[in-house]
Amino acid sequence: MRARGVFRGGGNLLVSMGHASLLTSGLFLASGLAGSAAARAQDAPPNPEPRPAQPQPFPQQPAQTGLPGQVVLNSNGQCVQPPPMVELKDYNGPLHKVVGTFTQKLDRLSVHDPHYKPGLILCSLEVKDKFFLFLRDSVDPETFLAAGFNAGISQAKNDDPSFGQGGTGYGKRVGVSYIDQVQFRFFKEFAYPTLFSEDPRYYRLGQGAKKQRFLHAVRHAVVAYNDHGEPMFNFSEWMGEISGVSLANLYHPGAQRGFGHAAQNVAIDVASDIGYDELREFWPEIARKMHLPFRDENETQPDALPAGR
C-alpha cells in the first residue's frame, strides 16, 4: 500500500516534456521520410512493373494479463485473479491515510472465492509471491507498532529482567519483540506454506449470516486452503506457532521454559490470529462505515468481465 502522489505534479511536467520531445522527433522523422521518398521517386523508372500483392500477416494479439476478475492460466489451470490492493493514494485526507497505513495488512492477507464464477478457484501464490508477502509484512508499519506495544507490556511486567529498565531496557525489548514478529511471519507466511503447498491468505466469506461468517473466521485456525483451492489442515498456523515459540526461547534470556508455558503462548498467539481473521472478515463493513476504500471495491463485476471469460 504506499505513497506515490507527492511527485504527481512533477510527473505531469515530465510527461509534457516527453510529449514535446516525441512530437519534435516525429517531425524530423516525417521530413526525412518525405525527402527519401522524393529521391526514390526521381530515381524510379517511369512505368515500373507491378508486383504481386504480398499476403499481410495477421497482427499479433497482445498477451492476456492477469487483470482482476479475469480468468487466467497458471500452473494449477484456470483461475481468477483477486482484486488489486488498495494503495495509500486511494485514501482521502491525512487521517484516512494514517488509518490506511496500519490497516492495509488486513487486505494484504484477505481474499475471497469468486462466487460469480462457479467451478473456478483463486490463482495460487507461487513461492516468490509467498516470500514477498513475508517481506512486505515484516516491514509493515503495523509490525513495528506491535513490536513497540509488546515491548511496553514486557517492560511493565519486567519480562527478561536482564534487559533492565529505562530507555536502554525498552530498546532491547523492542528489538527482540520485532525479531519475534519477523520469525513468526517467516514460518507462517513463507516456510510452512511453501513446504505444505498451503495458501497463507485468509479466504473471506463476505456474505451470509454474521454468525456463519464469525464461525468461518474461527474455523480458519484449523482449516486452510492448499494451492489448488482445496481445504486442508492449517499446518502453517500450528507448526509456525510451535516453531516460533521454540525459537524465541533461544534469545529471550528470561523466558520461562517447559511445555505448559509454551502451550500457553501458542494458545494466546492462535487466539490473536483468530481476532485478526475476524477483522479481515468484517473489514468491508467497517471500512464502509469509516468511508475508507477496501480491496473488494476493486473487484471486477461479472457483467464487466471481457466477453467469453
What are the key terms here?
single chain; 309 residues; 3-stranded antiparallel β-sheet; 8 helices; 54% helix; 7% strand
Topology as a string of helices (H) and strands (E):
HEEHEEHHHEEHEEHH
Average pLDDT taken over every residue: 73
So how many helices?
8
End-to-end Cα distance, whole Å, is 29 Å
* Biggest sheet character: 3 strands, mixed
SS class: mainly alpha
Rg over CA atoms, rounded to whole Å, is 28 Å
Structure description:
The chain is globular, with a radius of gyration of 28 Å. The chain starts with 7 loop residues before the first helix and ends in a 20-residue tail after the last helix. With 309 residues, the protein is mainly alpha-helical. It has a 3-stranded mixed sheet, with no helix packed on it. The chain has helices spanning 8-43, 94-108, 127-138, 141-156, 166-195, 210-219, 235-251, 259-289; strands spanning 71-74, 77-80, 110-111, 121-122, 198-199, 202-203, 223-226, 231-233. α4 (141-156) packs across α5 (166-195).
Give the topology, please.
Blueprint lengths: L7 H36 L27 E4 L2 E4 L13 H15 L1 E2 L9 E2 L4 H12 L2 H16 L9 H30 L2 E2 L2 E2 L6 H10 L3 E4 L4 E3 L1 H17 L7 H31 L20
Parallel strand pairs: 2-4, 3-6
Antiparallel strand pairs: 1-2, 5-7, 7-8
Helix pairs in contact: 3-5, 4-5, 5-7, 6-8, 7-8
